[in-house]
Specification:
2 copies of one chain form a homodimer. By secondary structure, chain A is of the alpha/beta class. Chain A is about 35% helix and about 15% strand. Chain A is built from 11 helices and 15 strands. The first copy, chain A, has a 6-stranded parallel sheet, with helices on both faces. A 6-stranded mixed sheet of chain A has the order 9-8-10-11-12-15, with helices on both faces. In chain A, strand 3, helix 5 and strand 4 form a beta-alpha-beta unit. In chain A, helix 5 packs parallel to helix 11, helix 7 crosses helix 8 and helix 9 packs across helix 10. The longest helix of chain A is centred in the last third of the chain and has 18 residues. Chain A is elongated. The interface between A and B is large, with 90 and 90 residues. Chain B binds a DNA duplex (30 and 30 nucleotides) through helix 2 and helix 4.
DNA sequence: AAAATCTACTAAAACGATTTAGTAAAAGCG
DNA sequence: CGCTTTTACTAAATCGTTTTAGTAGATTTT
């Protein structure tokens, strides 16, 4: 058990010599003009058009020279713009969230925006509470990542993997139909007919849409989905364990299958562990298709075949559309829906199906 | 290539009916008292001691009834407290960062704090720029995660895995000596003498301290560190690829070894891939010890033996000490250093060393 | 030459809190 | 009763901007 140990010797006094930041008033006094003038000039207001360039130069120079930075709160108080977004995520975890957040980051930073994060961990009361806290913080808008929005909010919202049709929200979603088609087509081409599925947790935004698409695609390929071969993820841990448990349930049903299409890479990894413990080799005995293409999918053993979601891009799009909405003002038109395309990435976890159910007999577990 | 497609039909007007938030002045008018009084009472200022409980109750009730929430920027402007921390990270990635951020989150939220994040991606100019942006944003302090702080900053700093001795910063570090001892002791007990190492990137805060501890521990166990068996991670990708490349270099040296101690789990995973491609089995031919114990270390194939860092806890400690420092005021004493303890987690990637260099002959790669 | 327009600014009122210095009325004290 | 103290408040300044409505003087127009 790790224990912390606070260094007894190491106490310090923080005699910090913050040289006070210079205010607009001080700067104005310095150049011998009024704060109003400086504000107008520095913000390039059209009202300042009549001011001679020489004066403007003088002002800009002084601002640079004295390292003037407008006071954030003072400005926000006046303008009612905080240049801050709220980001609502289930948790900060390896796979999905991190990638989306990086995309958001990249867009925001170049627009001079920052974001504050809140993790609701699927707790209903937090899902309610956080938008209020964001409102208190005067965010200009929020991005919800894999988080259900159940009622309209008093600021613009972009929802990554959002599927609810709520006033004021822009949903950024994957083309799930195509994703399901890609996965099943790949498996069918390899000769798989008995396919098992791991559905997402009930609280995951994509679960339902994805499942509907899978059923549709299965119909298209004339594959029957056997109830015994469908397991659902339970619990909100971001570890592969939930996939491991779901796969155990699948195996316990003793209904033969030659392939698994998992809800995401993390659960696919857990499932692989379960299969191997049960004595099945992946992909020789059972093929596994993941979803997302997270960082380590390519380096897992075996390397995961997966449906790639452009997560980074989805984050970028969310940030971008939200910023545009904010810039355009509250009652301009905005897209209700942006769809992005998946991509099949074939690696080592899928191969041709073994003929006539040989693999389906449960073997002795190898340890 | 994923393409985005913005739904042509789906345009909406955002006729949002934000009912304006109530201000202190309005609330005051409503209860028939002055804003001053309300402020004093609501903030439980000692100045309000003389105000009868009945009046206080009336005020609190009205505040609740009219759902009064103090305006964030107005308050911050006056009090010069933003209840916001800046968090500086290399990037938001699966392993290290996410876990630490979760720890930070948990502490901050219960203290009514939020944080803004900036990813510097090891770019020198961003490392310089972000603290300034944080200052502009009036943060009350910053937490630097795996990020070098090279000069004093005008606000309190907590550095997770920080090793530089700078005025005003609290370093939260792992007991690297012990970590190195745990890893080498484990390997030595399994009979390993020829051990390869992957050092961290030059820009990683822990690289140097860890390496020094490893050398010390090696001396202790009378293990010689051969230069040909030391590779360093290069490049700032958070993918296992950098470990894969380093391991390739190790193999290219054609100097036999029976075990690898990697800088972190991610690079260990990359290295395992490289070993397997070269025809070595892990752990039968070469044992691998990782570092960190990230989420998927336990589910990798083989499951990673690793040195666990209490990352979540380190995040908590950083947040906690920083909040305390802020609460205590700028010139109170504070700890310079907090040390946390590592833990050896033995899984499947290590086993007894093969005797007399049999494993060290390079085999045919298996595909 | 008077009126209209421009030019180059500024005064002052917000924004929505907090906080210091009071003050009027009531209570306590000798 | 007169004096001090306490009680229950409030006025007004302040934080650092932005922005609207002017204004004084110069220039142009008629």
């Amino acid at each position: 058990m790790p224990r912390k140990k606070s260094d007894a010797r190491g106490k310090k006094k923080g005699g910090s010599s913050h040289k006070r930041a210079v205010s607009l008033k001080e700067l104005a006094a310095h150049v011998g003009l009024s704060p109003s003038t400086l504000s107008l000039v520095l913000n390039e207001s059209p009202v300042a058009d009549s001011i001679p360039q020489a004066t403007k130069d003088r002002i800009f120079e002084a601002a640079k020279g004295m390292n003037y930075r407008p006071h954030f709160h003072a400005r926000s108080l006046r303008t009612k713009r905080s240049h801050t977004l709220g980001v609502l995520v289930p948790e900060i975890s390896g796979g999905y969230t991190a990638e989306v957040m990086n995309g958001i980051e990249e867009q925001l930073l170049k627009a001079g925006y920052f974001y504050i994060v809140a993790c609701h961990r699927h707790k209903a009361e937090l899902l309610d509470e956080y938008p209020k806290l964001f409102l208190d913080r005067c965010v200009d808008g929020i991005i919800a990542v894999d988080t259900p929005i159940t009622h309209p909010l008093p600021f613009p919202v972009a929802a990554v993997s959002g599927h609810s049709d709520i006033e004021g929200v822009t949903n950024i979603v994957l083309n799930h139909r195509r994703a399901a088609m890609l996965a099943l087509e790949h498996l069918v081409k390899l000769g798989h007919r008995r396919i098992a599925f791991i559905k997402g947790q009930v609280f995951s935004s994509d679960t339902e849409a994805r499942w509907n698409s899978i059923r549709e695609a299965a119909r298209e390929f004339e594959i029957t989905i056997r109830p015994a071969l469908v397991a659902q993820l339970k619990g909100d841990s971001p570890s592969p364990e939930v996939g491991y448990i779901a796969a155990k349930r699948l195996l316990a049903a003793r209904e033969p299958f030659t392939a698994l299409f998992a809800f995401n890479d993390i659960s696919a990894i857990g499932a692989i562990r379960a299969f191997q413990e049960a004595g099945f080799r992946v992909p020789e005995d059972v093929s596994v298709v993941g979803f997302d293409d997270v960082d380590n999918a390519a380096f897992h053993n075996p390397a995961l075949t997966t449906i790639r979601q452009p997560l980074y891009e989805m984050g970028q799009i969310a940030a971008e559309t939200l910023l545009r909405r904010i810039a355009n003002g509250d009652d301009a038109a905005f897209p209700e829906l942006v769809t992005v395309e998946p991509e099949l990435v074939v690696r080592q976890s899928t191969s041709t199906a073994k003929e006539n159910g040989k693999s389906q007999r449960r073997k002795q577990a190898n340890r």
